[in-house]
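Forum: Protein Structure Q&A
Topic: Joint prediction for protein chains with partners

I've read a bunch of threads here and the consensus seems to be that you should model interacting components together rather than docking separate models afterwards. I'd like to see that in practice. Below is the full input, 608 residues plus whatever partners are listed. Could one of the regulars post the assembled result?
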Amino acid sequence: MQRTLTHIAPHLFAAVALLALSFVFQMTPASAATDDPWVSIRKEFYGDRQISETKPPLIIDAPDKAEDAALVPVSIYLLPEIADNIKTLRVFIDNNPMPMVGTFTFGKAAGFGPKTISTRVRFDTLSNIRTIAETNDGKLYMATHFVQAAGGCSSPAIKDAQEALDSAGQMQVKKLNNPHKFASSKNASSVTGEAMVMLRHPNYSGMQMDPASGQFIPAKFVRTLDVMRGGELVFHLEAGISMSSNPNVRFTYGTNGDEALSAVASDSDGAVFKASTPPDNS
Amino acid sequence: MANPGGTSGKIVTRKDFLKLSGAAAAATWLPWLPIVSPTQAAALNISEVAPGLFVHKGHHALISPENAGDISNLSIIVGKDAVAVVDTGGSITVGRGLREAVKAITDKPIRYVINTHMHPDHVFGNAAFEADKPAYVAHHKMARGLSARADSYIKSNTRMIGEAAFSGSTVVMPTEHVKDRLDINLGERVLTLAARPTAHTDNDLTILDQATGTLILGDLLFSGHIPTLDGSIAGWIKLIEAMRGESANRVVPGHGPASMSWPDALVPLDRYLRRIADDVRSMIKAGNPIGEAIKTAGADERTQWLLADEFHVRNVTAAYAELEWE
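Posted by a regular:
Agreed with the consensus. Here's the joint model:
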């Protein structure tokens, strides 16, 4: 009996996978193309490893149609089944020139219970945006959303050019007082807080034109962002050119009294930016 | 000029004239008539909103092959010696139509092509006037803004309008840059150009025709067509407040009727911008993320405007990204 089951299981799996795959293809026009970029992205990052696409415990939310392709809000929700065990979270935009948006690695101060990460990204053309969560025990989960958008990577980073120059480098970390949204935590001693880090930075994609020279502006983008609560890591982010200008990350974390949050970012030219919450902000 | 159609207020274009002559030509060959090639542009419809000041009203639509980018209001001002045109439409096809409209009303040279700001539906007809060797006049920040966007503007406008109408619509950069104010004399007719602080874009320029008290506002004024925000919402609200005190007999919006009364014309625009700014500010204060703001901010305003589905969410997105730094 055991023997028969193991014999059948791979076929069953293949059939289910095929069914799931055909569903995905119907829902997401971009992946229907024969030169689907996801095939090679998946191979490069995950080889033949199995990736679960069952909806919870990982959810991605983005608009179906992005009105401003240079600033598309995206939110990722990790439900309790995987949230306490999360190791990394990657975000990809399949059809972008640099599909890898960023990798979040979580530390001790990320806290317990459900987690949320929100940021803003650029779409060069219509594409799937997907997130893949890897847990400490090596399991992979994926959530995907198709977004209609175009031109976000080459459109200018800023509206008021002079104002952007004048304010470049400003950085803020803010605690947001929204505890009611994150009430459910299995660890009673842990309280989940929400905070936001924002940085004035053009995040040049390398695909934008310099008006003075008529040449492309070299890519210059925020490459790393570390957020700490006291001396403990909330998350470390490795990012690429798909993040919008004035990078912004909103996140949940485990509070510890009124311990301050601090953030350090570095860009591809080696410039370093720092900020922390004011002492009375809790 | 004679008006054989008899419709009051309608400008007889050269094409109308040729059409009439064409009927005669069917019977008798008239060799002195110019030969009209099938690609020759038809003159745009214009109306005279004040003596010697003519406005073509653009469609309230997205640019498309059908409208060739003819979606914004374009003006012609005729002085004793020269002509100025303000904005040139979204393609060389529209620019040619505007040039034909000028030629139908006067033989005076077109010495000035003025752009109210960098957006494609206002500048891509510039190339149609190159033979006139005019001064191309704009806000001193327009060159920077337009060249940063030139590539993506050409790509997206070629795609949306189509090669047939868009081919030849090159980016023509300003040759005169207005830093603060500039007076242009068309011959017993002075235009006062004013470079404005960041509002609709960071390069908005207004034109006051001193002779008739007509203020051409470009996209600092929208009516009917939902406003679009590509500059600063706080700056725009502030500028509206300041402009209210300027005197004008009438104004010409960038999108809307050919002529409107002043300052009443500002009311719906002002209400829209303030509603979005208020909603977005309170959502930021309450800690609501941008993804939520775009679903609800200014919801009751959406029904008040044409093309709201195309631009409202984008406006809220831009407002949020700006106001969260206040």
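Chain B touches chain A at residues 141, 143-152, 155-156, 198, 201-202, 230-232, 235, 287, 289-291, 294, 310-311, 313-314, 317-318, 321-322, 324-325 (CB under 8 Å).
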